[in-house]
Amino acid sequence: MLRLLERSITLQLLVFYCLFLLPLLLGGVELYLFQRNALQQNATRADLSLAQAVALDVEAIIGPAINIDTTLSYSQEAKQLDRQQLTTAFSLAALAQPSSNLYAVCDVSGNLLLASPESQAHNLSERQLCRHFLPSMQTNGSLISISRISLNSGGSLVVLARRISDDRGKVVGTMLVTLQLERLAARLLSMEKQWNTNGELRTWVVDHEGHPIIQPGQGPFAADSRVSLPGVKEALQGRQGSLIAQESNRDWLYSYMPVSLDGGYWGVVIQRPTDSTFATVVSFRNSLGIALFMVLIGASFFWFAMHGGVVAPLKKLAQAVIMIKPDQETKVMDGRLLARERERIDEIGQVIAAFSAMEDEVHDLFRKSDATSQARLYTLDAIMHSMNEGLLLEAPNGHIIYANQRFTQFVGLSPNDLLPPIFDEHKAQDALLSLIEDPDVYQQAVHAAETGSGPDVIEFYVRGYHNPVGQHIPVRRVVRLRVFQVRDQTGELIGRGKVFQDVTRTNEAELIKKNLLAIVSHELRTPLTSIKGYATSLLETDVEMESAIQEDFLRGIVIETDRMAELVTSLLDMSQIEAGTLKLSPGLYPLDVLIKQALPEQESEKVRISLPMKPSLINVDGRRIEMVLRNLLQNARRYAGADALIEIVVRYEQEDGEVKGGLYLSVIDNGAGIPADLTERIFERFYQVDSGRRRSSSGVGLGLAICRGFIEAHGGRIWAENRADGATGAAFHIWLPPRVLYPPDAQPDMFALLNIL
C-alpha cells in the first residue's frame, strides 16, 4: 500500500484530504451525540420537574383531606355517632380545610345519618354517598370515589371514605369527606398554558388503583389508565423517570412521578411530543449538519482547485518526461500535452521551461555521441558474431537479452530470430534443452554455477547440432559451458554470460593422444618382447636346440617383425591420408582374385562369395583394395565370432535416377551388429568399440579409418549399417565409381590402361 502511495501524488493528496475531513466529520458526529444527550436530558429533567410540581400540588390538596377524614373517623364522636359533637367537629374541620365542602356520616346499612353543611346535602342522594361507599367498611384505608372531574368542568367532586369502628372494633358506619379540586384544576391549567406553547402538553393524575383523577380534555375516561398510558405502572410502584413511546405514528415523551398518599402511591404523568420537546436538539442537529456540509463543500472545492491547478499539470509533466527519448525526432515539451501549462509563469511553468532546456541538451549530446556509440556497438556485435563459441547474455532475473549468431546456429535458429521484435527467449531455451541429453542434470549444474555453489565450467553431451544451412546433424557432441558474471564499474551485478564451446574434437584429440601412446606402446612392446625372447634363446651357447625349434623361433621373429612393419605402415598410410598426400598405384585386377587373396586360407570355407556372372577387371590400387577387404573380413571375424557366417556380395549398377552406377561390394556377417550411434564413429581413427569391461580386440583402431581413406582416394564411399533383412549382424558397403570398371569382354590395352585414372 505504501509503495502504491509513493508512486502517485494524487493518491497522497487524496489521503491527506481524507485525513483532514475524517476527524472533522467524526468530531461533528461526536459533538452532536454529546449535545443531543445533554439537551435531551435537560428537556427530560424539565418535564420531570413539572411532574414533581404537580405531584406536590396533589399531595398538598389530597393529603390534608385524607388526614382529616382519618382523624374524624377515629374520634370519639364518630365512634359513638354523636351528631351534636360531630357537627361541631365538622365545623372545625371545614375551617382547617377550605377545599373540603361536605362532611357526612353513614350507618352500616348505607343510610345517611349526618351531613355538614346541610345546604350541600340536598345535592347528593343516599345512593351517591352512603351506598356507594359500603365497600369502605371492609378496608382499613381510605377509599376514594371513582367520580372524577375534568379540568374544564370545575363541578366534579372527589369523595374520601373511611370506616368508623367503636371501641370494641365493631364497624358502625362510614366517614365521608368531599374534596373540591377547583384550585388544583386551576393550577394545572396555569401550568399547561405556561409550558404548552403548541397545545400538546397533557397532564394526568391517577389514584392508587390507576383510575384517572385528572386528565386533559373532556372526553370519556379510560377504564384503566395503566393499559393505555405508559409510565403509570412505574409511578404507582413509587418510581419516577421518563420514556419514549409511539402513539398515532408519532413519538411522545412520558415523564412520570409518584405521589405518596395514605400509605400508597398515586401517579402524575406528563406527556409531550418529542419533536417539540427536543426541538432544540433537532435545531442543533440541523445547524451542525449544515455547517459540516459547508465545510465538505469548501474542502471539495479546495481539492478540485488543487488537483486542477497543481496535481494535473505535474502528472502531465511526469508523462512528458517519461516520453523523452534521446533519439526522438520531435520535441516532447513542445507537444500538445503541455500546451496550456507552457504559458504559466509560476513555479510549474518554470519547471516545464527547465525540462524543455534539458531535453534540448539531451538531444544535442545524443547526436554528438550517436555516431561513436553506433560504431562501437556495431564493432562489438561483429566481434560477438565472429566468435566460434556460442554466447548467451542473461539479465540477473534469468531472461535472455542477447545471443550471438553461433549460438542460434548451433540450436537451429535463424539470424532473423535475433531481432528484438521476433526474439523469443523461451524458444531459444527450448531449442537448447531439446539437444541436451540430460536436461535436468544440465539445469542443476548451471544453477549451481550461477549461485557459486558449483564449478563455473561445465561439460555436457548433446544429441547433435545444426550446420550453417540449418540441417540437424545427429552426431553426439561434447559442449563445454563457462558461466561468468557481468558487473558494472561499481561492481554491481548486471547480468550473467554463458559461453558454449564445442570441445568434441579437442577431447577426441586429447583422447587420441592418450590412446595412441597407450596402444602403440602396447602394440610395439608385444612383438619386441617376442623378438627379444626368440633372439635371446637362439644366442644361448649352453643349450643345444634342434633345427626345427630354431626354425620355429626364426619364423616367430619374422612374423612379429611383419606385425611391427604392418603397424608402422598403417601409421604412415594414416598420416598420408590426413595430409592428403596419399598416392595410388592403379592397375587392372580381377575382383575375384583380389577377394581370394584377401581371404586367409583357414577362412576360405567360412566365407560365402556372391559375384556377377562375368566379373570385370577393375582399375584400382590392388594392394590397398586388398588391404581394405582384408581389414573388413578381419573386423567381421573379430566382432562376429569365430563361427560366424560371413558373406561377400558384389553387384554392378547402371546409372538410373537416384541409383548411382558403379561397383557395389558388401561384407555381411550374422554377429551382434553395431550400435546405431556408432555406425559413423567406428570409422574414426584410434576408435575401437568398447565391450564395457575391456577392449574387444587388439590393434590400434586404424583399420576402418584407413579403409575409408583408401576408398575415398579412389573416388568411392564406404559406410556401415545393421542388416535390414530381419537377421542380426552388420553390413559394410563399398561403392566405387563407374570409371574404375573395365568391360569384361574387352582386351586390355596396356598402353591405354595408364590413362584410365
UniProtKB/TrEMBL annotation:
Coiled coil: none annotated. The keyword Signal does not apply. It is an enzyme of class 2 (transferase). It comes from the Bacteria. Residues 376-419 form the PAS domain. Its EC number is 2.7.13.3. The chain crosses the membrane at residues 288-306. CDD domains: HATPase, HisKA, PAS. InterPro entries: BphY/WalK/GraS-like (IPR050351), HATPase_C_sf (IPR036890), HATPase_dom (IPR003594), His_kinase_dom (IPR005467), HisK_dim/P_dom (IPR003661), HisK_dim/P_sf (IPR036097), PAS (IPR000014), PAS-like_dom_sf (IPR035965). Gene3D superfamilies: 1.10.287.130, 6.10.340.10, Histidine kinase-like ATPase, C-terminal domain, PAS domain. This is histidine kinase. It comes from Ktedonobacter robiniae.
